[in-house]
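2024-03-11 09:14:02 DEBUG pipeline.ingest accepted 1 chain
2024-03-11 09:14:02 DEBUG pipeline.ingest length=343
2024-03-11 09:14:03 DEBUG pipeline.predict start
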Amino acid sequence: MIKNRLNSVIIGATGYVGLDLVNILSKHPNIKIKHLCSQKNLGKRINSFDNRIKKKLPKLSNINKVDWKNLDIVFLSLPNGEAQKLINKLFFKYKNLKFIDLSADFRITDLNLYKKYYGKKHFANKLIKKSLYSITELSLTKLKKFRIIANPGCYPTSIQIPLIPLLKKKMIEPYNIIIDSKSGYSGAGKKYKLKFSYKNFELSTYGYAANKHRHEAELDQELKKINKNIKFIFNPHLIPTFRGILSSIYLVKKNNSSIDLIINELKKTYKKSSFVKIKKKNSPLGTGDVIHTNNCEISVCQSKEKNKIIIFSAIDNLIKGAAGQAVQNMNVMYGLKESKGIK
């Protein structure tokens, strides 16, 4: 049985994802926010960073002020490499604590790949097997069994929700998959202008990280769980908007898979989902309807070549791609309604 209120701490509360997380959790009927942690601006109120947050919450504090023994759930929205260090210190000492990590620290099971893509050594290798990589809709029966949840990346969320059911049913070929994803620049974090030499983010479109984006490792790992022979090309772009992702996925159908059967399979898979919406065949799709929601909208379109289809998948990168899915994962972990506090 879940107690009426879960005591929570949000670490990294003032980043783009952290602020959306605070905004959602401040309205959640089963959450009490006990601490908001940040490296800077200590003593300030969180609503000075985001006027959407109306509730009076604890002032920003240092992580050293946290009383871990009286907490239930820890949300970590930290730079890659930091969450693993903290969880490693707390996991065995405070056995009531559960963790939802929004960085990449527990997404990659191969530690050599983690070091290759993120340039950091992993210091919590014993905890990798105790964690669950979780796109909520695809992990509903597993979430209660784990104390560490690896929240997926934003691009991989938009891609795996439509792809995985079709790969499982062998309705699409596992080769020649082309994924073209476009994201608002908030996906690069608050320091996005320091990460790229590129200028004028707010006015133009930017293609980057050709065949070497960090999320490739995550995608390759998860898709190969379904089919070891999977082959795909993934390339991201930043577009002149603050939030939202649109992934265009180009696929070859199996001979006996019509576009109608593919749409019906997606509808069947997500029939009970609160957040995945399958559009009518050949529907145009953009990010406008998913902004500030935890929804993933999917449209399956016939290509000019009869054996090929294009799938459009749209999410809000900061919500379904991060904060909203984190709360969705938490809800299922504790036996709450999946959409509690999110819709």
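2024-03-11 09:14:41 DEBUG pipeline.report The chain has eight helices and 14 strands.
2024-03-11 09:14:41 DEBUG pipeline.predict end
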